[in-house]
Amino acid sequence: MLKITDLVKRYGSGDPVLKNLDLTIEGESVVSIIGSSGAGKSTLLRCINRLVEPTSGSIELNGTELTSLRGRQLRAARRKIGMVFQGFNLVDRLTVMENVQSGRLGYLSTWAAIMRRYPKEDIRRAFELMERVGIAHYANTRADQLSGGERQRVGVVRALMQNPEILLADEPTASLDPKTSEQIMGLLRDLAGELKLPVLINIHNVAEAKEYTDRIVGMRYGRIIFDDAPARLDQDAMDRIYSGSPHADRSGDLRQAS
Amino acid sequence: MSATPDTWRKPPFIANPVIRWAVYLGALGYFLWVGATMPIDWNRVADGIGRAGRIFGGAFPPSFERSGLLIDGFLESLKIAILATTGGVLLSIPIAFMAARNVAPMPIYYLGRFVIIVARSFHPVIVAIIFVKAVGFGPFAGVLTLVVYSVGFVAKMLAERIEEIDFGQVEAMRAAGAPFFSTIFYAVFPQIMPRQIGLTIYQLDSNLRASAVVGIVGAGGIGATLANAFGRYDYDFALAITIVIVGVILISEGISGQIRKRIG
Fold first, then answer.
1. Does residue B178 belong to the interface with chain A, where contact is any CB pair within 8 Å?
2. CB contact under 8 A, B185 and A110
3. Which one, of B191, B106, B207, lies nearest residue B151 by Cα?
4. C-alpha–C-alpha distance, residues B217 and B223, integer Å
5. How far is CA B82 from CA A154, B85, B123, in A?
6. What strand order describes the sheet that includes A64-65?
7. What is the ipTM for the molecules in this complex?
8. Largest Cα–Cα distance in chain B?
9. Domains located in chain B, CATH noted
């Protein structure tokens, strides 16, 4: 269970990007986060695995408080959080197998990692997962030889190699064409079911969010203003999430404050 | 009357006319003053032309009689260049990581930059004079000199390449909980490897050239052979050495250019 309480993130001294945000994700649900650019979706996801340092608040994953961890403990916690990126973030010049195994780096000694001495069970698991998503025949191919959809499949397998307790996907389909994009969304949904894994997906495509996820969270300028089943996302809610400008929103805050 | 202009001039380099003319006149005045005050003795220039004529006259035809000495000198230069390149590149890699703003913490970054600046600030000939004083005449001083020279160039260029990497790959490793050195080996090295190989080959080529120069001040190699030949007025042998140096450098530049083109 992921439990976020009173999370604030402020860059420099400006207006906070996340404003006292609360969010709980239970079980193996697939949750999508929608909202216009700059709403803080990406920052929220990156606060969870501490690629971005939260300013204050609490993030708890299955009983572990993540915000106070440092060094070795932080790395141990990150192993339990898989992440899929918009730009895939594969190491282009390494093979697909090396990319997939890089998801195990947190479990592997640096020496074994450099010598590419991967444990047998990791190799078997890698082939199982690559088989599952249809890229097993690319094991020895360099990652930059693959198409966008194939590259994102490598990204997904890399994240799953961590044996994560939650999967974060930061706009996983934004760099893909519509058809490939639907395939990846379907894959994420199916894998969540098969591996009993909660998945948190930032997404711009509302139609895909409605079709492939169990719950939609709507963000606007650092706050959650919608949190319900996809069927409940009506035009009125859409307008509240996507209309208005940051400026209007901030001056509203000022009026409330004064 | 039409107001549309039909002439246009490029705006002057310095907008303010007073400053512009002051700069032009100042520069002209300085050159005249330098020309008038430099102690150039035209008689000695005339003598020098005659001496130069004797040197070149003595140099023709080039003599390859003592080719054994020539080959030995070259092999020594090659050894110096290879040892210095290996040592210099191995030292450069950690220094480059220290001097890359995106991977090193601030104090380490300044230390790395400082090492590079010190290594770059002296010409190899000056470094060679210091090392010849420190460890005596011979190839070892040459190797040490060119190690410093290699660090100055390779570490600087490599640090710049590290600063240009796609940081998303590093982020992906961090998100997986990878330790620091695993992250460096998986997300950074693959990205900088082509540049690293290109720089190494370029530096080998460059060290071979520089080893001829530092040899003149006593740091071994073909440069020492050349300096001896001049000292003994063997101008024909000196010309032979010079021709071979130019030839070898042309060949090594051609080879290294080809290799760098293939891996680029």
1. yes
2. yes
3. B207
4. 8
5. 41, 5, 20
6. A18-25, A2-9, A56-61, A64-65
7. 0.86
8. 87
9. 68-263 (1.10.3720.10)
